Amino acid sequence: TSSSTMVDFLAENNLCGQAILRIVSCGNAIIAELLRLSEFIPGVFRLKDKADQQKYGDIIFDFSYFKGPETCEGKLEAKPELLDLDEEFRENNIEILTRFYLAFQSVHKYIVDLNRYLDDLNEGIYIQQTLETVLLNEDGKQLLCEALYLYGVMLLVIDQKIEGEVRERMLVSYYRYSAARSSADSNLDDICKLLRSTGYSSQPGAKRPPNYPESYFSRVPISATFISMVIGRLRSDDIYNQVSAYPLPEHRSTALATQAAMLYVILYFDPSVLHTQQAKMREIVDKYFPDNWVISIYMGITVNLAEAWEPYKAAKTALNYTLDLSNVKEQASRYAAVTERVHTQVQQFLKEGCLREELVLDNIPKLLNCLRDCNVAIRWLMLHTADTTCDPNNKRLRQIKDQILTDSRYNSRMLFQLLLDTAQFEFILKEMFKQMLSEKQVKWENYKKEGSERMTELADVFSGVKPLTRVEKNENLQAWFREISKQIMSLNYEDSTAAGRKTVQLIQALEEVQEFHQLESNLQVCQFLADTRKFLHQMIRTINIKEEVLITVQIVGDLSYAWQLIDSFTSIMQDSIRVSPSMVTKLRATFLKLASALDLPLLRINQANSPDLLSVSQYYSGELVSYVRKVLQIIPESMFTSLLKIIKLQTHDIIEVPTRLDKDKLRDYAQLGPRYEVAKLTHAISIFTEGILMMKTTLVGIIKV
């Protein structure tokens, strides 16, 4: 029975699956909360400027406080004015400190829960389930890998967004101001051990602490067997079955990118692989990083492996082949060629009247290949040319980046234009497919009825009863066409594969009958046959409208890696809106494409029916909304600039036409130039308005702009 109990790992009654699903759902929610809170760190905890240090230096402590709390408190009690300040500071900050403490506590609780789950699996608490059987199940394997990866991401996000010193000061303040001091059962000690400063600083040019982040990752021990089994799965399997969405071998590293990012994070839990296991590292680089080295690890947090793997001998050696300048040159030149080719293609497809239903249905593979090429090229170029992923003081990284910029003939405006066109193309395709899927069955049944009726009518023609000119009675043909009509009627929509096969055979039969029985000479008979074949062809087309196409477009169109990088294109977006207002409609598609990045953190939260769904989706949607606002504020600016110009033209330049005038003066009053200007500006304003209205109607699903 063990195989049948594993069938639905995510079923509500599968305790083993529900437990790990809850952990992973919680992990995604914790990261959102950490990102949200990192924007609300009270500035004083940074003690950056002299004034803060002088005023608060005596009441804000780092972990050295725990060496002698009495001494520190004694100093305070000696000065009444310090006590007052301390009390006021407590009142102002206890709320936000509590929120930070709860977030930190949830990180610690997360790893405790994960370890407990692994112990339970080990001890046979879940009937017939072991670590091995869970890893054999598709969902189980994904969830176990995600669980460890999310813990790593939490630790990295904390260090990147909330500096070590600041964390320590906040934890000590919380300890001093809350009841945690008196309650013995608080796990504050463990939380402090996990989150004490690592010495890491996200400031540009800061030196990386030794053994970072692996020593930080090992602060709470995790089963070595579990870690090595997860790494094994990530090395060998395509755990998300992404390769089927990217059949071309040159897209393989993009297909496996999500998994590659997970592997990158999880390897820090077993640094011996990075340091000394050369064969494994070579295999990992060959499979995941043969043609890319800048990766996005979670919601657009990017890492440059050339820098990240510098301290590890095996990893660095393996990556050297990828970073060899001749390989860099080859990749960059390849993307230069691809970009040029596909951009022309997409612009062709976007021409008015090009994406019609028949054309789309006959060219699905071609359209999808074009989309894959576009998205893979945009991804590679955006990640590998980003400023944030290249430390300007690192000579080698700078050299690699210059090489890319030269050989890919990089032009940020062109890349952005390709992103816009691709987003628009995807949007149109998705909308068409949704529409076609909803009408699919009705249309199919319609074509079937039409085709069958044509055959019945043709059978009647050969009965000799119908007065159709010069067709001799032919009982064989009459019976044959009746049979075909029956066959067409018997096609079953539910069994699409068989129906498709049979339809093809019917088309062939109709072509053959025309040749064998010399029916070409009668135009009306030929017309009946041609019509029926056309309907049968339409049936095949219609049955080929499959949900898979939408799913592939969704997978291939992922833009989550640009969640932060997109900001570097803001000024380009605004300039292009200024120049051509109709850009707004394409931008709408781009924002929607960006919004699909929310699927990633929300998927598990949704599957677990977790109450966190609302707050997490609100956080990311809120981020997206404020970004969209930032870009779109250019529209009111541009609109008012145009309005002012119109007012100026109408009040100063355009002369009122008197009620009577000599016709030779007509030309002076016509003022074609200024009037044309007014018309042009008015047109621009109306397009802006239209664009904003379109934004309003599309983005409401996710967010209210």
Automatic annotation (TrEMBL):
Name the domain of life this protein comes from: Eukaryota
CC terms in the record's Gene Ontology section: endosome; WASH complex
Signal sequence span per UniProt? Answer: none
Q: Which GO terms describe its biological process?
A: actin filament polymerization; endosome fission; endosome organization; regulation of actin nucleation
What InterPro entries does UniProt report for this protein, alphabetically?
WASH_strumpellin
Give the protein family.
Belongs to the strumpellin family.
What name has this protein been given in UniProt? WASH complex subunit 5
The scientific name of the source species is Mystacornis crossleyi
